[in-house]
């Protein structure tokens, strides 16, 4: 949508979005946060507070923030704004958190679906973004319960 290019896209990495643009689960669990998107930068590894902080500092210097709404659900994180529309499935988010000293900054790291490349996406708000971090944590817990816990159990099951 951003470039206007058309072509084949692997369905495994995409999610069908209804025409109304909503990604509300059947039980309606979606949380919205009004934030400002500062931008994204490539990062060398998939996790770590030091990686988040370095990315936040880099993005803060080079971009003007654009207002957007961030929706968090068990399906993923969706950014909707005048300058951006992005959707990241939870399985492609490897790390997230608030800046340790300035909690009005929040970042999350995503893995490229095909390559060993990672990007950090940085957001800010006038108030603390700890509720956003907590919402993402709850989404991961729910996602784990619904998908990973059943498909990859960590307990040994013995059948006699």
Automatic annotation (TrEMBL):
It is found in: Cytoplasm. SUPFAM superfamilies: PH domain-like (SSF50729). Its main location: cytoplasm. PROSITE patterns: PID. Keywords: Cytoplasm. InterPro entries: JIP1_scaffold, PH-like_dom_sf, PTB/PI_dom. One of its GO terms (molecular function) is MAP-kinase scaffold activity. One of its GO terms (cellular component) is cytoplasm. Residues 32-146 form the PID domain. GO terms for biological process: JNK cascade; regulation of JNK cascade. PANTHER family: C-JUN-AMINO-TERMINAL KINASE-INTERACTING PROTEIN 1, JNK-INTERACTING PROTEIN 1-LIKE PROTEIN. This is Mitogen-activated protein kinase 8 interacting protein 1a. The lineage of its organism: Eukaryota, Metazoa, Chordata, Craniata, Vertebrata.
């Amino acid at each position: 949508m951003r470039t206007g290019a058309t072509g084949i896209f692997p369905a495994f990495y995409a999610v069908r979005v209804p025409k109304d643009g909503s990604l509300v689960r059947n039980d309606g669990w979606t949380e919205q946060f009004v934030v400002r998107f500062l931008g994204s930068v490539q990062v060398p590894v998939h996790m770590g507070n030091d990686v988040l902080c370095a990315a936040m500092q880099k993005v803060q210097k080079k971009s003007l923030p654009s207002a957007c709404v961030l929706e968090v659900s068990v399906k993923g994180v969706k950014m909707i704004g005048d300058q951006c529309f992005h959707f990241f499935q939870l399985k492609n988010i490897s790390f997230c958190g608030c800046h340790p000293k300035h909690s009005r900054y929040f970042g999350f790291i995503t893995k490229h679906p095909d390559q060993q490349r990672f990007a950090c996406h940085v957001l800010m708000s006038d108030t603390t973004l700890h509720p956003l971090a907590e919402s993402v944590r709850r989404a991961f817990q729910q996602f784990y319960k619904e998908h990973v816990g059943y498909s990859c159990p960590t307990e040994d099951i013995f059948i006699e």
